[in-house]
Write a structure and sequence with these properties.
308 residues; alpha/beta; Rossmann fold; L-2-Hydroxyisocaproate Dehydrogenase, Chain A, domain 2; 2 domains; 6-stranded parallel beta sheet; 3-stranded antiparallel beta sheet; 10 helices; globular; binds 1,4-dihydronicotinamide adenine dinucleotide; binds oxaloacetate ion; L-lactate dehydrogenase (NAD+) activity; NAD; L-malate dehydrogenase (NAD+) activity; NAD(P)-bd_dom_sf
Length: 308
């Protein structure tokens, strides 16, 4: 039997994630939304692309959580995106209400699923989902670091005019202005980028990465990025479905790792069939550790506002 992935929120990120999943033939997809007609229309439209793409995935759109029953993975993209002039944190109260509603429904329908949280502000939403779902931390994971690292990799590849395939990068911390790109752990064909890009230029790439979401919002004006975010989400989905044991930067509930306790923050994680299978602790310099702490403190502040 094919695996079943539910995507909550049939908007830009949700529908595009469904597209990537189907194009890679990873699983059957249930697209669910509160708006009537949109998930049904997008789901059927995508299903009708399958003969052309030669992919046997079944896709349906629905407003009924009964259709999502016993999903292997549930991706939550429900919520409002930001507009120019807003920070992700401005979405906190609205998206917290939506997250609470969604988590109670998906966990009732799929008590054994793995939850991947995408809605912003990401780390606080992951924390809210974790507290409400009452799943163990292996089964509630937030998507941000894969996206932030992909942006950093893009900028490095463009700067050095090398294949994106040569570039690896790590971005830790919360998915906000205080995120922590780590040049020391970013490489081109195994060569640390600190050997290849001079410090001032590198700092500019780091800052562009931190502002990567806002850069897209400024162009789009009506919403935020969705191609790279959905591709990043689907890399996590694939790692879990295929039990790849892939190391990816994800938001995970820390219990003492990196000196942080009881909080979702982005760190290197191993993803496999059980979800979050391991948190990798790397030794940070004093400066990197201070930046990570500052980022975690910003997440903690947001969580305190909504009491999670
Ligand atoms: N973690 C990350 O790195 C990223 C997070 N995001 C976040 O993802 C979220 C979605 O972004 P977009 O898809 O661009 O927005 P969108 O507005 O295109 O889609 C959101 C969808 O959620 C639906 N929705 C609202 N309340 C719902 C509920 N209670 N149940 C089910 N569906 C509901 C809406 O009807 C809409 O179709 C935003 O919060 C955005 O900030 C976006 C990009 C990257
Ligand atoms: O910028 C936003 O609001 C959406 C997002 O999280 C991103 O693209 O990094």
């Amino acid at each position: 039997m094919r695996k079943k992935v539910t995507i909550v929120g049939a908007g830009n990120v949700g529908a595009t994630a469904a597209h990537w999943i189907a194009s890679k033939e990873l699983a059957d997809v249930i697209l669910i939304d509160v708006v009537e007609g949109i998930p049904q229309g997008k789901g059927l439209d995508l299903l009708e692309a399958m003969p052309i793409e030669k992919r046997d995935c079944h896709i349906i759109g629905t407003n009924d959580y009964a259709d999502t029953a016993n999903s292997d993975i549930v991706v939550i993209t429900a919520g409002i995106p930001r507009k120019p002039g807003m920070s992700r944190d401005d979405l906190l109260q609205t998206n917290y209400k939506i997250m609470s509603d969604v988590v109670s429904k998906v966990t009732a329908a799929s008590p054994n699923c793995i939850l991947i949280v995408v809605s912003n502000p990401l780390d606080a939403m992951a924390q809210a989902a974790f507290k409400q779902a009452k799943f163990n931390r292996e089964r509630v994971i937030g998507m941000a670091g894969v996206l932030d690292s992909a942006r950093f990799r893009t900028f490095i590849a463009e700067e050095l005019k090398v294949s994106v395939e040569n570039v690896t990068a790590f971005v830790l911390g919360g998915h906000g202005d205080t995120m922590v790109p780590l040049p020391r752990f970013s490489t081109v064909a195994g060569i640390p980028i600190t050997e290849l890009i001079e410090p001032a230029k590198l700092e500019a790439l780091v800052q562009r990465t931190r502002d990567g979401g806002a850069e897209i919002v400024k162009h789009l004006k009506t919403g935020s990025a969705y191609y790279a975010p959905s591709a990043a989400t689907v890399e996590m989905v694939e790692a879990i479905l295929k039990d790849k044991k892939k190391i990816l930067p994800c938001a995970a509930y820390l219990q003492g790792e990196y000196g942080i306790d009881g909080l979702y923050v982005g760190v290197p994680c191993k993803l496999g069939a059980r979800g979050l299978e391991q948190i990798i602790e790397i030794k940070l310099t004093a400066e990197e550790a201070a930046a990570l702490k500052k980022s975690a403190d910003a997440v903690k502040e947001l969580c305190a506002v909504i009491g999670v």
